[in-house]
Model the fold of this input.
Amino acid sequence: MAKALYDKDSNKKALKGKTVAVLGYGSQGHAHAQNLRDSGVSVIVGLHEGSRSRATAEKDGFQVYTPAEATKRADIVMFLMPDHMQGPVYRESVAPNLKKGAALAFAHGFAVHFGQIQAPRENDVFMVAPKGPGHLVRRMYTEGRGVPCLLAVEQDASGKAGEIGLAYACAIGGGRAGVLSTTFTEETETDLFGEQAVLCGGITELIKAGFDTLVDAGYQPEIAYFECLNEMKLIVDLMYEGGLSWMRYSVSDTAKYGDLTAGKKIVDEHTRSAMKELLGKVQDGSFAKDWILENQCGRPRLKKWMQTEKAHPIEAVGKELRSMMPWMDAKSAPEA
Ligand code: NDP
Ligand code: MG
Done:
């Protein structure tokens, strides 16, 4: 078993006297900036001219500079803007202003692993990747808890990159839950594969296919929604709490028997070989190249696909049903 590190393993002084520039103030940015500050670390925020997040960061009490200015003042530059923007921001604003000996830090390995950022050899490069969304990173911290983090060192110019990275992870609350070591390669490839094959791509198609099958067979869309989407959360909660066996222990014997007779027919050899193919495209960089090009063209395919997805009947019926569940804090995605 990989050994987890905790607050007690961290050198509390590793961030002493250092200023962290958090570039970006979105999901992760606001959480890192606020948690670091509450842990006694000196933090500034870097945002481009005309940024919508600027007002929020200022309201939260941060000094906000342009990414170039923030970099000039920083000993650690943390990249918390969307992954595809990190290369251009690095080249235009960070590289020309980076202090000697300053560290470059990331919450995901995409830009470094796929060569969008090539750091000078004399700078440390590390990653602290919380395994949870930003609002949770902040909320858990304020509750005295934390979200587990992955820690990786790509370049250890100072000989202290690991120590600084661990102190950073602890300062955002990761050391309360456990910090696991990884590499940029492992984090990036598993993260991309996971979201494609299982977490986002796999599950949305599975839900839609189940819903469509029921509706096409003449069942009410409302019933199909509850069965294929709403109940997903209850099942995932059980797996999260006690693994697959706890879920199977909790459902009925009939559900267990159905599970074990049907599951392998749905995720069969074809699905497994498609997963291997996806992993191959992540590993050989072709997915990354495709995504970078899509952004450079203004995201034409992504926009079109998002429109199509939004028009699927499960979205309309779900919206209706969620509004009838007053205990639920129902959310609605803004226009893309
Ligand atoms: P968001 O999309 O939530 O935040 C984007 C932020 O970056 C906004 O404040 C945006 O400003 C700002 N921004 C946009 N362009 C620039 C620029 N040129 N210079 C400076 N800031 C800019 O990003 P996330 O928090 O989701 O992701 C940040 C990083 O964290 C990524 O590497 C991601 O992979 C990683 N990560 C994300 C997780 C998550 O749960 N979301 C989980 C773990 C890692 P404006 O509002 O003005 O557009
Ligand atoms: Mg991801």
Notes: The mean pLDDT is 97. The pocket of magnesium ion (ligand 2) is lined by residues 191, 195 (CB under 6 Å). The radius of gyration is 22 Å. Strands lie at 19-23, 42-46, 64-65, 76-79, 103-106, 125-130, 149-155, 179-181.
